[in-house]
């Protein structure tokens, strides 16, 4: 950009003027983006980081109820928890639940997702059918299982109708089967939704990969596990993390609705123990001490799953 200026002798001269710097506009854009992120950051700090810190604080307190006086307990709550046989029963039940429900759910869901991704006849209808358990509320799912597993329910009626009445049992009230029923509910509730997620991811895998494997003589089973699985290995890890967290922290609602942790402690899980001690026994210090241990178990589990499913290339 140039401008005309007058010299001392009265003649006109041209002088170059540098263009305005665009830096202020870029700075305003960056500042505007930061301002837009502030509400989400405040929400995260108040409702995510705040409760997490509160768990560690309450775990160090002796707090026998919401309206009761609070005193500092230090590590006393941890000693009480570790000396409590109910806690170790909950640890065992949670470990069995995770060891059975998560692998079965992921393997079966991956196989179902692979089948749907091959676009068989009626694959759109199959997607909707698989998604139905995810659309049903938790109390409704619990009522379905209660109707099937109660002493006069559908399962015992079916066994009697085929001459196997001797195998009938009070499935939800038996110490040997109560936890297995809860695991079956976890698998049934999560397998369809997980299969739909896998089908969506497998649908983005190029068809040429499967066709090349089949031209080389690989069947569907080998193509599924040796070709498609390695391609979406990282996605399998993400879905496994989600189901691990859901099973670890979300099992309390199924226990509460169906077994109340019984009979005895045969179906008590760590997440239900947190609820039971906080809202039934009114021992908030004990409850949040278990919550801290549950948080640490979840963190270790996530890191382990991430390492197992990490891509090797």
UniProtKB/TrEMBL annotation:
SUPFAM superfamilies: MetI-like. The chain crosses the membrane at residues 36-63, 95-116, 128-149, 177-200, 235-258, 278-305. Keywords: Cell membrane, Membrane, Transmembrane, Transmembrane helix, Transport. Residues 1-29 are annotated as: Disordered. It is found in: Cell membrane. It is a multi-pass membrane protein. CDD domains: TM_PBP2. Residues 91-305 form the ABC transmembrane type-1 domain. InterPro entries: MetI-like (IPR000515), MetI-like_sf (IPR035906), UgpAE/MalFG_permease (IPR050809). Gene3D superfamilies: MetI-like. It comes from the Bacteria. GO terms for biological process: transmembrane transport. GO terms for cellular component: plasma membrane. Belongs to the binding-protein-dependent transport system permease family. PANTHER family: BLL4140 PROTEIN, DIACETYLCHITOBIOSE UPTAKE SYSTEM PERMEASE PROTEIN DASB. This is ABC transmembrane type-1 domain-containing protein. It comes from Streptomyces lividans 1326.
């Amino acid at each position: 950009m140039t401008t005309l200026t007058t010299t001392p002798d009265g003649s006109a001269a041209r002088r170059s003027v540098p263009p305005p710097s665009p830096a202020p506009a870029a700075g305003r854009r960056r500042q505007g983006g930061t301002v837009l992120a502030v509400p989400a950051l405040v929400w995260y700090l108040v409702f995510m980081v705040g409760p997490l810190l509160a768990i560690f604080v309450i775990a160090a307190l002796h707090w026998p109820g919401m309206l009761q006086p609070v005193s500092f307990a230090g590590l006393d709550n941890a000693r009480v928890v570790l000396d409590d046989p109910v806690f170790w029963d909950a640890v065992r039940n949670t470990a069995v639940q995770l060891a059975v429900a998560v692998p079965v759910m992921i393997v079966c869901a991956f196989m179902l997702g692979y089948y749907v991704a091959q676009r068989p006849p009626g694959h759109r209808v199959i997607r909707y059918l698989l998604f139905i358990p995810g659309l049903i509320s938790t109390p409704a799912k619990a009522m379905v299982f209660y109707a099937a597993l109660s002493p006069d329910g559908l399962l015992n009626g079916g066994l009697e109708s085929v001459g196997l009445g001797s195998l009938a049992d009070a499935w939800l009230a038996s110490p040997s089967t109560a936890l297995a029923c809860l695991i079956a509910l976890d698998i049934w509730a999560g397998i369809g939704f997980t299969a739909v997620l896998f089908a969506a991811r497998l649908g983005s895998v190029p068809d040429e990969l499967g066709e090349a494997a089949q031209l080389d003589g690989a069947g569907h089973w080998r193509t599924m596990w040796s070709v498609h699985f390695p391609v979406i290995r990282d996605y399998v890890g993400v879905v496994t993390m989600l189901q691990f967290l859901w099973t670890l922290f979300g099992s309390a609602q199924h226990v509460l609705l169906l077994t109340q942790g019984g009979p005895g402690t045969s179906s008590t899980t760590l997440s239900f123990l947190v609820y039971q001690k906080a809202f039934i026994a009114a021992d908030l210090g004990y409850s949040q001490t278990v919550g801290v241990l549950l948080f640490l178990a979840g963190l270790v589990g996530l890191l382990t799953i991430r390492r197992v499913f990490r891509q090797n290339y």
